[in-house]
Amino acid sequence: MDVKVTDVKEDTEAAAGANACPVRRFPLNQPEGHKAPVPRYSAAVKAKVAVLFLGLQARSESLPDAGLGEFLACIARDTAAPVYIDQATYTDLQGYLNRVAALYWLDTAQFQTWLESPSVKEWRARLRRETSVGLWWEPVVVDARRMETVTFKEFRRGFSGCPAMGLNATDHTGYWGAARDRIPGAGNDPFDATVAASERCPVTAASYRKVQPPNNMCVIRSGVSWEKCDGEQLKDWRERIKPKLDAGMTYLRENPGATGCFSLRQVESISADGRKLAEAYSLGAFVSMKHLETWSKDHPSHLAIYTSALAARKKYQEKLQLHTYNEIFIVEADNPPFEYFNCHPQTGLLPFAEQLERQA
Asked: Which fold has domain 6-18+35-46+145-197+214-330?
């Protein structure tokens, strides 16, 4: 999606204002005198917003007529349509093809109106009857004080990519704890876990199931684009950074009890007409922000990712061609439930459904 870049504030005072707390109980993690290795920016989100991650899931390489493209074309005509959409695809460990869309709203009232629209209701009802196709439906409604974004101004995705979205320069980047420092509410709330981490448990197959995300669950979307990379920088991405990224994501998927990772999807971005793009992102859900931070700071699999990526930033600086971004959302107790229609039992939060119900 092409986005008009507006209101990019270069001054650090403006960036600090976006992350300021009136009185902090918890100090910033930023080291004294720290200078960001390359300029980074945060979306100027000021209110409660919504994002819906959804996926169609099937064994077939070509999904049936209940396809995602048809649905997205239809909802684009809705008066309360999302202001930003991007698409992706991946094959999960169970061998199912997943077509993925991320839909963004800057007005939660519009999101609620959209949910009640005939086009949405009819499509969901049709998929519920279509047993050969699964639908996972994972909405996040979050206050601006419980989220963060960071991006390059030349590469805007998610909330940073919403039309007319302003950007604030931020120096909260390039050190341990920077993501937490970018969350305005973290100055007074540690966002502690409200459930325990556990291994996946078998679940009874069902055509439809709701799962309520626990309070303070941490959802992260972390993406990368190598479209502009060539020569040595493309080689760095393919041979030094990507293999370490893949190893880290595999570790998270395989060790939910140790890491608190409920779900980790590595998806490949595609255009609206299905063309593969030179970008990808990981979509993860963790028991808490602390679980994500512990893996990030302490585990060799993330340290390998971090050191290789940071080395590239320092080496190339203003000439860096690899662009990254991430968004973190801290879910509240009244977040809408995640819903699963005809999905295999290892999808999303399904392997933890019974545990979450017991601890609710």
From this structure: Alpha-Beta Plaits (3.30.70)
Least confident of 8-17, 94-103, 169-178, 206-215: 8-17
Closest CA to 285 of 238, 316, 241, 252: 252
DSSP assignment of 173-191, as one string? Answer: -SSTTHHHHTSGGGGT---
pLDDT band of 299, cuts 50, 70, 90 = confident
pTM (2 d.p.) = 0.92
The overall average pLDDT reported for the chain is 90
| Helix (H) or strand (E) segment spanning residue 227 | none
Helix ranges (H only) for the chain are 12-18, 68-75, 108-115, 118-129, 178-181, 231-235, 242-254, 256-259, 289-298, 300-316, 353-359
Question: Domain map of the chain by residue range?
Answer: 6-18+35-46+145-197+214-330
Angle (deg, nearest 10), helices 289-298 and 300-316: 70
Question: CA-CA distance, 98 to 266, in Å (whole number)?
Answer: 11
How does DSSP classify residue 151?
Answer: B
Answer whether residue 187 shows pLDDT above 50: yes
Return the structure tokens found at 155: 């590469």
Closest CA to 353 of 134, 201, 207, 137: 201
Tokens 């000439």 found at: 319
Residue written as token pair 């300029």: 39
Instruction: Calculate the alpha carbon distances from 287 to 139, 149, 199, 358 in Å.
Output: 16, 19, 12, 15
